[in-house]
Amino acid sequence: MKSIIAKYIAFLLLATLASIATSGLISISILNKKHQESMEERLSGLTAVVAALVREVPRERLRGAVGDAARTLGAEGEIRLTVIMADGSVAADSAADADRMDNHLDRPEIVEAAAGSVGFASRNSDTVNKRYMYAARKAVLKSGEDCFARAAAPMEKAESAARQTRASMITAAVFTLAAALIAVLASSIMFAAPVRRLTDTSARISAGDFSARSGVRGDNEFGVLGRSMDSMAENIERDVAELKRARDDIENILRGMRDGVVVVDSEKRIVLINDAVDEVFRVECRNSAGKPLASVLRLAALNDAVDAVLSDGSPREIEIETDPIEGTFIDARIFSFRGGDADAGAIIAARDISRLKKLEVVRREFIENASHELRTPVAIIRGFVETLLAGASKDASALDRFLHLLDKESLRLMNLTEDILSLERAQSRRSSDDAESFDAAAMLKDCVSSFDLFIFGEGLKLETDFPAEPAFLRMSKQDFRQIFVNLIDNAVKFTDRGVIRLKAEKAGGAVRISVSDTGVGIPAQDIERVFERFYRVDKSRSRERGGTGLGLSIVKHLTEKWGGSVTAQSRLAAGSTFTVTFPARAEN
Asked: How many whole angstroms separate alpha carbon 106 and alpha carbon 181?
């Protein structure tokens, strides 16, 4: 087993060494950068001086002026000034013969200066065989020629300073490491520290603080004990957190369920209840925990079922009509749950099935009405066929009359079948791929044109009132046409004489279209039911004109499918008005 003191000393020494090395490298890097920035700033200033000089000195005196400036600005050999023409040739240099120098146009500092900024570079000079830092900028000679002003300084002093800095840093690091060793040796004597941490951690865990950790690690006895204690606290904390998460998950699930859930104990007192119970049972159930079930949900059938489940443990499923007037129904499932070896209570899961019940009634009525409507033309057709087969076909006049009647009834049967299919498609409310933008007034004119001959043949008058500006809608053209063909056909069918009016107008963000007539009208008690399937106000007149009783229902469902609404207004013997409103759409 390794010594805790030895490991402690080794760890701190390594940490101290790493810290010293890191800080030393960072410090050296910073000092080098600062020195370089200082040199760049100085050289940049010198290039500005040279740029100002060349603007005042004629080119023939440029070499002497540059040399004088170099001696004035720095010690002999320390500062080097150069003037380079725009084509890269050297016009003057304070340290060499300009005529014997290479073209400098490709030098990095010149390339950078040509781009418009002060250029910098560090390299060994082939001319004087020294390592220099260079700075260059654009300038203009007194003659107006473009050139570059360059200044350079040897890097020997900078490199020497960097070496001295490194030596000083290493010396400081050695003394720091020695001081750290002394500190580590002194602190390692305090072996009682882990004992104190273990004692404190044990007391916190005993007090219920399962997040407490000793932090003691290692291969020695203290490390083993610390790991065991921390592992125990971690397991307890994890188990407590899992229990809390499980409780929160259950509460969240119950809160998000549409089914009402009630948990009662063996005494039928509420242990747990979710918010959905309020909507399902239509009662206020908040803060009901601890209350008797019968005092919160006053439904005898439900309470009897809970008693039965608590008695024999067998699950029950019951259907309760909670409000006969509103027609509300609840489907409840009750089953027991156990705690240990004894029954602990029961769980009630209830669902509002009122809508399903109503849909069932609607479905049943639809089947009955559809069967009745289909049976009538089929019976008539069969009667005519039997009559013809019995010999009536030999009578030419009877044959012609029966064929016309067969054609009429078969057309009625076909119209009924098509309307049933249209109603099913309208009720599906599925998004359609044939939606497009169009002008409602233009489409209405097209719908009206289908009725022109029929309206004039009936002696009716057609009036239209459409807006001058286009009223755009986005929906299926086929659905739009079916809506208004049905409404216009309905108006013509129940108007013996008078006027059929179509009006379209923009109303805010909507397009409102009305179809009015001066026909027989609708009794007030029938207005609310005219959109029901197979509902007819005047059954004999509707059947005589070939009506199926589904037209207005199709209008309602197609309108709602595209986000619109339809209303009916009427006075008996004064006519009716059906108004359809759709959300307007911009042209695209």
From this structure: 56
Shortest CA distance to 31 belongs to which of 194, 158, 210?
158
Edge-first strand listing for the sheet containing 510-517: 460-465, 498-507, 510-517, 575-583, 565-571
Domain of 377, CATH number, reads 1.10.287.130
| Percentage of the chain lying above the pLDDT 90 cut | 9
* Residue 152 and residue 269 share a domain: no
Q: Give the model confidence (pLDDT) of 7-55 as tens digits.
A: 656 777 777 777 777 777 787 777 778 877 888 888 888 888 888 888 8
SS (H, E, C) 224-245: HHHHHHHHHHHHHHHHHHHHHH
What does pLDDT average to over the chain? 79
pLDDT at 361: 64
Residue 479 belongs to what H/E stretch?
helix 477-493
169 domain-assigned: no
Band (pLDDT 50/70/90 cuts) for residue 177 is confident
How many angstroms separate the Cα of 221 from the Cα of each of 194, 413, 453, 572? 10, 96, 108, 102
The terminus-to-terminus CA distance of the chain in angstroms comes to 82
CB 297 within 8 A of CB 269: no
Rounded to whole angstroms, what are the CA distances from 567 to 48, 88, 524, 539?
87, 90, 14, 21
The domain containing residue 339 runs over which residues?
A: 258-352
The answer as to whether 186 is a domain residue is no
Last residue of a domain, one of 352, 370, 405: 352
Rounded Cα gap, residues 235 and 203, in angstroms: 17
The CA radius of gyration of the chain, in Å to the nearest whole number, is 50
Domain with residue 225: its CATH number is: 1.10.8
430 is written with which tokens? 């599925």
CB neighbour class for 265 (10 Å; exposed up to 12, middle 13-18, buried from 19): middle
Is residue 1 in a domain?
no
Statement to judge: residues 128 and 57 lie in one domain: yes
| Distance between CA atoms of residues 253 and 261, nearest Å | 10
293: Cα separation from own chain's centroid: 42
**pTM higher than 0.85:** no
Coil, helix or strand at residue 464? strand
